[in-house]
Automatic annotation (TrEMBL):
Gene from which this protein is expressed: gatD
Single biological process term from Gene Ontology: regulation of cell shape
Record carries keyword rRNA processing: no
Annotated source species: Gordonia jinhuaensis
Function, as annotated: The lipid II isoglutaminyl synthase complex catalyzes the formation of alpha-D-isoglutamine in the cell wall lipid II stem peptide. The GatD subunit catalyzes the hydrolysis of glutamine to glutamate and ammonia. The resulting ammonia molecule is channeled to the active site of MurT.
Protein name: Lipid II isoglutaminyl synthase (glutamine-hydrolyzing) subunit GatD
Family classification: Belongs to the CobB/CobQ family. GatD subfamily.
Reaction(s) catalysed (UniProt annotation): L-glutamine + H2O = L-glutamate + NH4(+); beta-D-GlcNAc-(1->4)-Mur2Ac(oyl-L-Ala-gamma-D-Glu-L-Lys-D-Ala-D-Ala)-di-trans,octa-cis-undecaprenyl diphosphate + L-glutamine + ATP + H2O = beta-D-GlcNAc-(1->4)-Mur2Ac(oyl-L-Ala-D-isoglutaminyl-L-Lys-D-Ala-D-Ala)-di-trans,octa-cis-undecaprenyl diphosphate + L-glutamate + ADP + phosphate + H(+)
Residues annotated as binding substrate: R139
Keywords: Cell shape, Cell wall biogenesis/degradation, Glutamine amidotransferase, Hydrolase, Ligase, Peptidoglycan synthesis
HAMAP family: Lipid_II_synth_GatD
Active site: C105, H205
Ranges where the CobB/CobQ-like glutamine amidotransferase domain occurs: 18-212
Gene Ontology molecular function, alphabetical: carbon-nitrogen ligase activity on lipid II; glutaminase activity
Length: 250
């Protein structure tokens, strides 16, 4: 298949894995741009050439990249991002052809059907995810630890959450994980994140991929068209995970 051919080209340096960092100018408040850095680094460590392409409010969203990441944002910035993504539907088209998309926090809300801001305004989303989001009584801030339910993930997930919105999944979206500590989607069903087609979304900052290498490699494997990638032995990442999971469980 085409993706399979791409990975051998990438390995021989003839082609480059193109990682789209979507709207870091408005969805970069929480350091989630680190997810693109982690993808690039883990690709390079395996001899796969990789490059980050930042798409700002000045750019149309290209549909041809290999993998996309979107970060969290405050309410106003989130609205600007929503408008841009509806006007330039490159992300929607990329997901339709199966390109992996990682959407963090505000982005889970933007990719849904609609979200209500903390001021009570309802904003139409881009409907890539079958979910809606409404503000909850209190803001959820703190360490989050979950058990993944997505096929291909076996390790607990760790992240830092900071959101007021709570997301209710419809039948076409499946949860990413079940909450063990923290809030997650925050509507009382114990779920965290949403998965639909090639989109994986979560409330986990951290950045999420720095804390969860298994999730990073799942996205990389899908982006390069291989079944799985041999794990990398990085003691510092193991140590970070141990500390963060312990902090969530305290
Ligand atoms: N503004 C959204 C909320 O509070 C998302 C926040 C975020 O991305 N951290 O729910």
């Amino acid at each position: 298949n085409i993706l399979g051919d791409n990975v051998s080209e990438m390995r021989s340096g003839e082609s480059t894995l193109r990682i789209g960092l979507v709207l870091p100018d408005v969805m970069g408040t929480y350091g989630d741009g680190g997810n693109a850095l982690v993808l690039r680094q883990r690709a390079l460590m395996r001899g796969i050439d990789a490059q980050i392409i930042a798409i700002t409010l000045d750019d149309p969203v290209p549909e041809s990249l290999d993998v996309y990441t979107l970060g969290g944002a405050e309410d106003y910035a989130q609205r600007l991002a929503t408008r841009h993504l509806s006007r330039y539907p490159g992300l929607q088209r990329a997901a339709e052809r199966g390109a992996p998309v990682l959407a963090i926090c505000a982005a889970i809300q933007v990719l849904g059907h609609w979200y209500e801001t903390s001021a009570g305004e309802r904003v139409e989303g881009i409907s890539m995810l079958d979910l809606t989001t409404s503000p909850q009584a209190t803001r959820s801030i703190g360490e989050l630890a979950t058990r993944p339910v997505l096929d291909g993930l076996t390790q607990p997930l760790t992240g830092f959450e900071n959101h007021r919105g709570g997301s209710t999944l419809g039948p076409d979206a499946a949860p990413l994980a079940r909450v063990e500590h923290g809030t997650g989607n925050g509507v009382g069903d114990g779920t965290e994140g949403a998965v639909q087609g090639s989109v994986i979304s979560t409330y986990m900052h951290g950045p999420a991929l720095a804390r969860n290498p298994e999730l990073a490699d799942l996205l990389l494997a899908r982006a390069t068209g291989v079944d799985s990638l041999a794990p990398l032995d990085l003691p510092e990442v193991t140590q970070l995970r141990r500390e963060r999971l312990a902090a969530a469980r305290r």
